[in-house]
Amino acid sequence: MSLDTTAPAASQPGGFTAEPLAIPSSLGDASAESFHEMTALRNAVARETYRNDDFVLPAEVLLPGYEASEYERRDGRLIREHGRLVGRVLFDLPLTEDVHMAKMMLEIHPEARGRGFGAATYELGERLVREAGRTEIRTWVVHREVDGPRIPSPTGVGDIPALDPAAQMLLGRGFELGQVERMSVLELGEERDAGLRGLRDGAAEVAGDDYRYVSWSYPTTEEHVDGYAQLKARMSTDAPQGDLAEDEQEWDAKRVREELESTAIARGDQVLVGAIEHLPSGELVAFTELQRMADGTKRADQEDTLVLSEHRGHRLGLLVKAENLLAWRSLHPDVERVYTYNAEENRPMLNVNEALGFRPFISEGAWRKVLG
After folding, report:
1. Do 300 and 274 form a contact (C-beta atoms < 8 A)?
2. Which residues of 44-76 are buried (b: 16+ CB within 10 A; e: fewer)?
3. Helices 117-131 & 165-172, crossing angle to 10 degrees?
């Protein structure tokens, strides 16, 4: 979320208009003009937030992610100043779990900040969330370092700068900090590979002969799709959630195909899922995901990673991540960086990432507001 905090909550700047988010069936349609405008705004905010081009995405990569599904619906408004697009507010509305919740994202173009568009857009967004029948807003915000007091995470680990303008805006509107997440980056290259192999070999020795690494690209093989679905379900309950607990998600092969794979395949993503199979039971007990969008960058993202609680203590997290990074390197040697998120209280996984060579990149606050 990228916010403008200078205007009173109820004010609207001159020339403020809001139009519904329109999702074109094709980027070649005349109706796609506003989507192209929105893409340009999104990318301007991404450059300003991350201070690089690694998160700039073309419209053809973004569009498949806006399609509605039976699991989640996206809605939103585009904000204009005398016809010029200056911001957007989007919300994802879960349809099968957490149906009381809306996940909000608000962005204001860097050149339009300081004139009240962020405050007015937030007020509009909250009203639309209420009209949708949702009683809680959650949002995730990158916080820039500012000298002064800190806001501690309720988990007891991690904090954010209290004087960061985004934090001030959220506190002033009744939000509570629920968790602090760390975004980390790993630089890849031949000099990294030897270290990864050493970590893999050491972890494999500890794990012993009962475990083996397996991997696949999308679409997931029939042999592993049910086990993968069960691991995704456990991700919703076993991963640290701070004060942001969510309903347990129900996953099956159909949901893997429709919610995960269809969008990734439509975008042209390259995905490598690595898992650990427990040989005595034949079950998958750990997994990690590496994903690269067709965005022209040299970046990949390490997405979900989980070791089932009943199989922890065998260095399976380090084993599956090191194996998957080495397999990725052989498939996509041109990728130079991998980004990942972890809750600051998830020290076991942070230990794994730090051993692999990840270093902190930015901090993100996860916030919630219960609507009265």
Report:
1. no
2. bbbeebbeeebbbbbbebbbeebeeeeeeebbb
3. 40
The amino acid at residue 316 is: L
Q: Which of 164, 140, 145 is nearest to 343 (CA)?
A: 140
Amino acid 238: pLDDT: 87
Cα dihedral across residues 128, 130, 135, 136: positive or negative: positive
Cα 46–Cα 52–Cα 53 angle in degrees, nearest 5: 70
Contact 315, 206 (CB under 8 A): yes
Q: Check pLDDT > 70 for residue 8.
A: no
pTM of the model: 0.93
Pairing of strands 270-278, 84-94: unpaired
Would you say residue 7 has pLDDT above 50?
no
CA distance 176 to 219: 39
**356 with 196: CB under 8 angstroms?**
yes
% pLDDT > 70, the chain? 97
State mean pLDDT over 14-35: 93
d(CA 107, CA 84): 15
Q: In terms of Cα–Cα distance, which of 183, 189, 180, 200 is closest to 317? A: 200
pLDDT of residue 82: 96
End-to-end CA distance of the chain: 22
Torsion sign over Cα 337, 338, 339, 345: negative
- φ/ψ of residue 65, rounded to 5: -75, -10
CB within 8 A of 235, min separation 6: which ones?
249, 304, 306
* Helix 316-331 × helix 347-356 angle, to 10°: 40
